[in-house]
C-alpha cells in the first residue's frame, strides 16, 4: 500500500458502484423498505453549493446505514428545474431555458456523483421533462375537476422588476424574495388552489407525524387556527340599516366593545359609499384613505406599535348587541380584509391595537376584565365595587389576559375564560374556527413553467384540455420578456394560443399562464416510486410499496412553502384514492445553513462562495463529507472554515496508515485486550445512536477517540479494525471500500451488515445497569459505583430513552437486582 490518494480511490469506487448498480432500490424485495428523501435541487448555473452537500451527505449516511441494517432503501435524486434564473438568463442571452437547464443538470449530476452520494440514479426525475410535467398538468386537472382550482380576481403581490405575481410566502419583509425589490399590490385574474379547504387537516394531522418541533410550530402558526365567534352588529346609516359580522376570539369582552372597525377593502364599505341613501358625510375622505392603504403590507398594517390610521364613517352608528349602546364605526387598515370577516369589534381596554387606535382618536376605553392580581388587592377591601371603579380610572394600560368580568351585566363576577360560549349565545352569535392560511396563487405570467392545461372558449367557458392531449408542451418563443401589462410571453405565440375548443370545436384560446415553480415539487416524491410510468403519475403498487417517505430532510426555509404545499397535494390525492397515505412524510428534519467564513451569507457578489469541486480536488470527497458533518451541530448554522478541513483529512491519512499495519501483520484475534474490545463496542453504540439523532459531529469525534485508542494499543485485531471501517463507511464511503478490499474482503462494504454492540462488552469497565420497562431492555445506565435502588430509579427516570416509555404511565412496581438490572412495571 502506498500513500492515501483520494483522487484515484474515489473515482475507482464511484465507477464500481455505478457498474454494479449498488444503490438501486428493488421494486420487489423480501427486505423491509426504507424511503429516504432530500429536496431535489434547482440546477442553477452556479453549480452545487456546499449547503446542498450538508443535507445530502447527512441523508446519505442514514441511507447507507439503513442498507447495512437490512432495508431495501430508496434514496432518489432529480431536478426541480422550472424557475426564474433560467428564464432571466434567456431574457439576457436568448438561450432557451431548456438548453441551459440541460447543461446545468449535467454539471450538477457530475458533482453529486463525485461526492459519492448513494442515489438511485435509475429513478432520476426532471420537472421540466414533458413526460414529467404531463402528470403535473394531469394533477392540476384533478384539482380543477374537484373545484379546488379556480380563477379569481385577486390583489396579488407584484414584483415590478421580475414582472411576476408573488405568493405571500415569497414576500420577505415587503420585498420580492428573489430580487429584493419592494413589492406592489396589483389586482389580477389568477389561478388559485384552494389549500384553505385543507387547513383544518393540515393543522390537525401534524399530530400524526414526527417533525422537528420548530417545523410543526412554524406550520401551525402559518395555518393559524383560531377558535372564536362571529357576532352580528346592527349598523344604521341615514335611514337605512345593515348588518356587519365581526370575528372575535374574545367574545367575552363584548361589553367593552366601544367602536366597530371595517377593513378598507370590506364589501360593505363599498356598499355604504356607493349608495347616497346611506348618507355618509365624509365620502371623499374615506375614499382617499382606502386608496392610500392599498400599498401598505399586512405586516405594516397590523404590527403592534405600528402607527394606526383610520377614518370614522360620519353619519353611521352601530349598536353594541350586549350593551345596546350606540358606538362609532371606522374604516382602518389595521383590520385586514381576508382574515376572519374583515371586520372587528374593538375593545381598547383589552386589545393592544385597539388601545393604540383609541388613544390616537380619543375613543372610549371601557374595562370589562379585571386581572386576578388586581382582584386580590381588592378582595379584602370593604367596598369592592368602589375600589374597582377607582382603580379602573387610574389604570390606563391595556390588559389582554383573562380574569374576572366586570361591567358586563349579568356576566359580571364570572371568569372570563368560562363564559365565551354563553356570551356568544347571549348576543346571538356563533362559535367558529378561522384560519390565517390563504388560498395559493397558482399562476405566473411567465414562460418557463408548466402551461396550465385549459382552453378558454367564448361559448363553453373554461374547458380542461382532454387528458389524451397532455402534455401541453412549451412552444419555442423568440422573446422571453413578459408583456408590460403582465401577460405571459406565451400570449404572443398565435399558432400556439389559437386552438379549437375541445367541447364545441369553435375557435378558442389556450390559457397562457404557467404554474408557479412550486408545482413540480408538490408531488415529485410520488414519481420516484415509479418514475417511468407512462399510464399514470405513479402506479398504486409502487406507491403502496414505498409510501410514505420514512425520513425527509430539507431546508427550514421550505417549511411554509414546499412542505405545506406537498402535504396538501398528497392529502387531496389521498382523498381521490390515488395515493395510499394521508401524509406524505413520516419524519422531517432540517439542517442549518452553511455560511461563509466570518459567519456572513455566501453570495456570488461578495465572492465568498465555496465550490465543492475545488475542495474535492484538493482534499477528496470523503474529507469534504467528513468536514461538513463535523463542522458543528447539524441543525445549527455554521461558518465555513477552509483552515479546519485539514483536520478530517489528517484523520483519514492516519486511518490509511494504520490499515497498512493491520494488513501487513499477522492478525491475532485473541491477543487483544478486553478493554479495547469494550471501547470498540461502546463506539458501536454511540455511533449508531448519534447517527439516528443526526449528531454527526459526535459520531466523528467518537471515531477519532477510537482511532487514538487503536494507535496506542500494541495490537489490534482485524475484527476490531473492520468494525471501525464499517462504522466510518456511511460517512467516508470511498476510503472504507478501499480499505475493506485491502483487508482481503471480496464483497463491497456497502453490502455488509451494520455492527451490533455487545452489551456485555460495553459494561466491562464501568458498572452498568440494564434498564427495562415491562421486561423489555430499553437502556443501559452506566455509573461509577454500585447504585442503590433509589438512586438507580432516579437516574433511570431521567434518561430520555426511558422517560418516553414511562410517559403518562404510572409505575406499578420496580424490580431491582443490585448493580445489574432495573425493571419498571407499568
Ligand atoms: C375583540 C377582541 C377583544 C379581540 C380583545 C382581541 C382581544 P387571532 O387570535 O389572530 O385569530 N381580528 C379579527 N379579525 C381581524 C382582521 N381581519 N384584521 C385584524 N384583526 C382582526 O386574532 C383574533 C382577534 O384579532 C379578534 O379578536 C379581533 O380582535 C382581531 F380583548 O375581537 B378580537
Ligand atoms: Zn367551446
Structure in a nutshell:
With 826 residues, the chain is of the alpha/beta class. It has 28 helices and 32 strands.
Bound molecules: ligand ANZ, zinc ion
What is the straight-line distance between the termini? 57 Å
Question: What share of the residues does DSSP label as strand, in percent?
Answer: 15-25%
Annotation, overall tally of beta strands: 32
Q: What kind of sheet is the major sheet?
A: 7 strands, mixed
Shape: globular
Please count the helical segments. Answer: 28
Look at the helices and sheets and give the structural class.
Answer: alpha/beta
Radius of gyration: 33 Å
What level of helicity do the residues show? 25-40%
The low-pLDDT segments are: 380-395
Mean pLDDT across residues: 91
Multimeric state: single chain
Amino acid at each position: 500500500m502506498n500513500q492515501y490518494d483520494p483522487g484515484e480511490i474515489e473515482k475507482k469506487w464511484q465507477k464500481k458502484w455505478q457498474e454494479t448498480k449498488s444503490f438501486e432500490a428493488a421494486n420487489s424485495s423480501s427486505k423491509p423498505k426504507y424511503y429516504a428523501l432530500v429536496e431535489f435541487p434547482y440546477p442553477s448555473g452556479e453549480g452545487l453549493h456546499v449547503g446542498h452537500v450538508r443535507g445530502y451527505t447527512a441523508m446519505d449516511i442514514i441511507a447507507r446505514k439503513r442498507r447495512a441494517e437490512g432495508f431495501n432503501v430508496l434514496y432518489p435524486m432529480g431536478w426541480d428545474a422550472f424557475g426564474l434564473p433560467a428564464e432571466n438568463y434567456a431574457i439576457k442571452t436568448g438561450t432557451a431555458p431548456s438548453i441551459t437547464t440541460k447543461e446545468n443538470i449535467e454539471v450538477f449530476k457530475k458533482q453529486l456523483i463525485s461526492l459519492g452520494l448513494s442515489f438511485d440514479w435509475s429513478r432520476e426525475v426532471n420537472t421540466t421533462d414533458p413526460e414529467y410535467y404531463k402528470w403535473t398538468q394531469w394533477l392540476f386537472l384533478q384539482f380543477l375537476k374537484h373545484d379546488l382550482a379556480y380563477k379569481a380576481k385577486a390583489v396579488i403581490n407584484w414584483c415590478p422588476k421580475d414582472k411576476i405575481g408573488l405568493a405571500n410566502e415569497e414576500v420577505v419583509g415587503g420585498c420580492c424574495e428573489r430580487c429584493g425589490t419592494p413589492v406592489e399590490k396589483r389586482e389580477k385574474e389568477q389561478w388559485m388552489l384552494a389549500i384553505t379547504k385543507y387547513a383544518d387537516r393540515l393543522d390537525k394531522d401534524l399530530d400524526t407525524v414526527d417533525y422537528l418541533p420548530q417545523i410543526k410550530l412554524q406550520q401551525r402558526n402559518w395555518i393559524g387556527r383560531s377558535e372564536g365567534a362571529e357576532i352580528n352588529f346592527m349598523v344604521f346609516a341615514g335611514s337605512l340599516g345593515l348588518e356587519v359580522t365581526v370575528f372575535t376570539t374574545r367574545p367575552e369582552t363584548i361589553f367593552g366593545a366601544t367602536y366597530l372597525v371595517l377593513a378598507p377593502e370590506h364589501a360593505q364599505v363599498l356598499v355604504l359609499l356607493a349608495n347616497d341613501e346611506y348618507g355618509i358625510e365624509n365620502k371623499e375622505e374615506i375614499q382617499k384613505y382606502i386608496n392610500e392603504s392599498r400599498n401598505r403590507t399586512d405586516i405594516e398594517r397590523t404590527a403592534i406599535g405600528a402607527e394606526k390610521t383610520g377614518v370614522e364613517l360620519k353619519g353611521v352608528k352601530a349598536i353594541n348587541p350586549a350593551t345596546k349602546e350606540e358606538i362609532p364605526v371606522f374604516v382602518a387598515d389595521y383590520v385586514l380584509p381576508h382574515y376572519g370577516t374583515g371586520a372587528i369589534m374593538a375593545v381598547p381596554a383589552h386589545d393592544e391595537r385597539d388601545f393604540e387606535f383609541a388613544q390616537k382618536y380619543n375613543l372610549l376605553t371601557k374595562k370589562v376584565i379585571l386581572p386576578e392580581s388586581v382582584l386580590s388587592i381588592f378582595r379584602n377591601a370593604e367596598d369592592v365595587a368602589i375600589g374597582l371603579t377607582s382603580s379602573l380610572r387610574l389604570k390606563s394600560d391595556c390588559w389582554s389576559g383573562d380574569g374576572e368580568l366586570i361591567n358586563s351585566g349579568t356576566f359580571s363576577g364570572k371568569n372570563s375564560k368560562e363564559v365565551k360560549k354563553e356570551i356568544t349565545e347571549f348576543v346571538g352569535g356563533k362559535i367558529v374556527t378561522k384560519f390565517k392560511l390563504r388560498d395559493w396563487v397558482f399562476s405566473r405570467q411567465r414562460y418557463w413553467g408548466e402551461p396550465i392545461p385549459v382552453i378558454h372558449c367564448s361559448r363553453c367557458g373554461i374547458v380542461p384540455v382532454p387528458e389524451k392531449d397532455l402534455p401541453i408542451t412549451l412552444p419555442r418563443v423568440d422573446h422571453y420578456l413578459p408583456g408590460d401589462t403582465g401577460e405571459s410571453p406565451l400570449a404572443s405565440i398565435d399558432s400556439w394560443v389559437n386552438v379549437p375548443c375541445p367541447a364545441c370545436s369553435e375557435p378558442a384560446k389556450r390559457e397562457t399562464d404557467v404554474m408557479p415553480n412550486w408545482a413540480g415539487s408538490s408531488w415529485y416524491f410520488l414519481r420516484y416510486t415509479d418514475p417511468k410510468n407512462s399510464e399514470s403519475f405513479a402506479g398504486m403498487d409502487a406507491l403502496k410499496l414505498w409510501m410514505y417517505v420514512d425520513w425527509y430532510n430539507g431546508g427550514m426555509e421550505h417549511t411554509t412553502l414546499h412542505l405545506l404545499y406537498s402535504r396538501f397535494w398528497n392529502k387531496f390525492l389521498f382523498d381521490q384514492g390515488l395515493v395510499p397515505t394521508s401524509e406524505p412524510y413520516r419524519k422531517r428534519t432540517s439542517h442549518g445553513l452553511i455560511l461563509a467564513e466570518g459567519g456572513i451569507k455566501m453570495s456570488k457578489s461578495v465572492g465568498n462562495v465555496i465550490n465543492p469541486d475545488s475542495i474535492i480536488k484538493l482534499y477528496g470527497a470523503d474529507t469534504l463529507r467528513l468536514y461538513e458533518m463535523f463542522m458543528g451541530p447539524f441543525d445549527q448554522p455554521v461558518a465555513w472554515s477552509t483552515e479546519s478541513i485539514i483536520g478530517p483529512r489528517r484523520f483519514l491519512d492516519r486511518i490509511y496508515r494504520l490499515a497498512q499495519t493491520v494488513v501487513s501483520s499477522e492478525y491475532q484475534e485473541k491477543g487483544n485486550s478486553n478493554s479495547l474490545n469494550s471501547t470498540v463496542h461502546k463506539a458501536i453504540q454511540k455511533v449508531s445512536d448519534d447517527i439516528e439523532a443526526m449528531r454527526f459531529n459526535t459520531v466523528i469525534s467518537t471515531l477519532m477517540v477510537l482511532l487514538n485508542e487503536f494507535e496506542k494499543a500494541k495490537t489490534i485485531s482485524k475484527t476490531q479494525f473492520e468494525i471501525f471501517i464499517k462504522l466510518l463507511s456511511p460517512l467516508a464511503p470511498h476510503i472504507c471500500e478501499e480499505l475493506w478490499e485491502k483487508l482481503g474482503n471480496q464483497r463491497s462494504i456497502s453490502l455488509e451488515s451494520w455492527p451490533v454492540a455487545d452489551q456485555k462488552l460495553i459494561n466491562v469497565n464501568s458498572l452498568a445497569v440494564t434498564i427495562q420497562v415491562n421486561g423489555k431492555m430499553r437502556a443501559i445506565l452506566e455509573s461509577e459505583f454500585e447504585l442503590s435502588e433509589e438512586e438507580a430509579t432516579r437516574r433511570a427516570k431521567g434518561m430520555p430513552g426511558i422517560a418516553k416509555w414511562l410517559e403518562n404511565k404510572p409505575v406499578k412496581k420496580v424490580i431491582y437486582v443490585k448493580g445489574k438490572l432495573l425493571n419498571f412495571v407499568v
